[in-house]
Amino acid sequence: MNGDGTRRGSAAQGRFPDNARPMDEVSDGAAGAKPPRKPADDPEQLARDTVYRLLAVRARSRSELRQALLRKGIDEDIADGVLQKFVDAGLVDDASFAEEWVHSRQQHQGLGRKALGFELRRKGVDEQLVAAALSTVDGDAEVERARELVQRKLRTMTTLDQTAKMRRLVGMLARKGYSEGLAFRVVREEVEQSGGGAPDPDLESS
Hints:
It is a single chain. The chain has three domains: 11-92; 95-134, no CATH class; 139-204. Helix 3 (43-57) packs across helix 5 (76-88), helix 4 (62-71) packs antiparallel against helix 5 and helix 6 crosses helix 7 (113-122). The protein is built from twelve helices and no strands. The longest helix is centred in the last third of the chain and has 17 residues, at 180-196. With 206 residues, the protein is mostly helical. The protein has helices at 11-14, 23-26, 43-57, 62-71, 76-88, 94-109, 113-122, 127-134, 139-154, 162-175, 180-196, 201-204.
């Protein structure tokens, strides 16, 4: 996946689960038979085309897709009905979306759990699914990612004194969604290792 949650590869290979069925196969009509294509101005067909186009760009939550359909003026009942068919076909899956989003954003953007949870909630993912996705974050990997961010930033802070470095680095990790305790511990260790000496004792309690 790319940093924004987009999977690599073609739309068919990168967006949809292997066991997902094409929407033609779950539409009305005999199994395996393609129904007649509806006129372009048909709201249900417009809804389907819109969802396919959005999923071809990147994976999305059901709520994101629903909001996109409503913005196009599609009736709520039609939007919900079309989205349910995508869910039934395995083409829209909030649990998989949440897990993939968490791992991609952690790896490519270096986000901590708080920021990841905020993003998923903003995308309308159910709280239980958010919690389940965040539980897959490896604690050691989270610490290592925070270290990488601090080490990279330290290289650009050679002219700053130790206190300024500590405050800016802790603030950076906080904005990335890392807990205060983890942020201070990682920053203190990396600053000390870089030759900055022991941290200001007043900084930890500030």
